[in-house]
Structure formats: C-alpha cells, structure tokens
Automatic annotation (TrEMBL):
Predominant cellular place of this UniProt entry's protein: cytoplasm
Protein name: Uridylate kinase
Compartments where found: Cytoplasm
GO molecular function annotation: ATP binding; UMP kinase activity
Reaction(s) the record says it catalyses: UMP + ATP = UDP + ADP
InterPro entries, alphabetized: AceGlu_kinase-like_sf, Asp/Glu/Uridylate_kinase, Uridylate_kinase, Uridylate_kinase_bac
Protein family membership: Belongs to the UMP kinase family.
Amino acid sequence: MQFKRILLKLSGEALMGDRQYGIDPKRLAEYADEIKKVVDQGVQMAIVIGGGNIFRGVAGASTGMDRVQGDHMGMLATVINGLALQSALEDAGIQTRLQSAIKINEVAEPFIRRRAIRHMEKGRVVIFGGGTGNPYFTTDSAAVLRAIEINADVILKGTRVDGIYTSDPEKNKEAVKFDFISFEDVIRKGLKVMDTTAFTLSQENKLPIIVFDMNKTGNLVKVVSGEPIGTTVNL
C-alpha cells in the first residue's frame, strides 16, 4: 500500500444513496465493505463525514435562521451520520471509535489527538464528528485539520464523480478531467475542490488531496494502493 495512514472525507449527501434525504442503509453497507478492504491491508484510517443529508447551517441561515445556531445543528447532524457509519463498520467486523469535537460523552469520545492516533495504531477506524466544533467552518476544514493533527499521508475525498474537471461534468459533457493538478492551478482556475479555508490549510501543510469516485466498487483500495484513480492535487 502506498499510504500507511489516510483520512477519508465523505459528504453527508453520499449516505443518501438514491434517496432525497436521510441515510440509505444499503449505501452505508457498501461503504463499510470498501473500508474493510483497506483496513484489512493494515492501513490506518480516519474518517470525517459531513451532515448535508440531514441539515446544513448555510441553508438554514439563508432562510433567516441564526448562522451559529444552524451550524451547531449541522455539527449534530455529522454526529448522527458518524453513529450510523460506526454501526455499519462494526457490522462488517471493523473496530471503530467515534470522537466528537463537541461534548456529547454519552455517544462519542471527546476528540483527543493522542488517543485518536493510538486507536489507529491498534487497527481501529476513527470517525471524527462534530466538525471542528466551531461555527463558520465546514467539514472540509475539519477533514484537513484532523488529517494534519494525526499526521495523515493524504486526504482522500470520496465523491460521486471520478475526479476534478475543468467544469461540472454532470452539466458539461465537454469538461476535461485532470489526472494531476497543483494547488496553484486549482486556485487560478477557480476549481471547487474544497472550500477556500480547507484548501489553503492543506496547501500550507503540503498535504495532498485525491478526489475520486467513492461509489465505484474497488476504487478506495485502488487509490490507497497508488493506482492512478481520480485526481491528485499536490504542490
């Protein structure tokens, strides 16, 4: 395996499957199977998951809700998704720990960096919920922050498209896919890989990002093995 310790970033919408909202148990089970293949190879893994399938603070703010209140609701949504993913992983025979950036001790451990690293060293998958614990920061920012803190080799951003394109491939059939692209080119071309805060933090810490199609069976193992899947963003 090319990478020994990875952070996998999943969107909340990824858990919806073909549904309009909520969580699709079938999709959860599929993800758990994909993750198990990687863990069985001895790769240490942490996961950050969004909450957009349940609630988005930005969406709430656009309808007049207090942004801070909305973001706190979004943080709780990520914990709900973390619990669902934890259950699916454990059904697949994977030991997990859910850590939260907000105190919710009855259902999740508090985020403690050294404890998270120790869990991974013991072969457990660590799911980070609650975002960064602060409003105005996305789960993309949380993913980069946690990846840096745990000394991950790479951030794997699992999406429903197979990489980064010159424009949205779902809207423009003429869009061209990048196999490799630099941080500078992503910024110069205005490509939406992650939000600006997350992307800049990744660039400053020289942490590569690989964007790939998580919904295609076997892709996660291929990415971790170093096969040219998706798009790699690096210096």
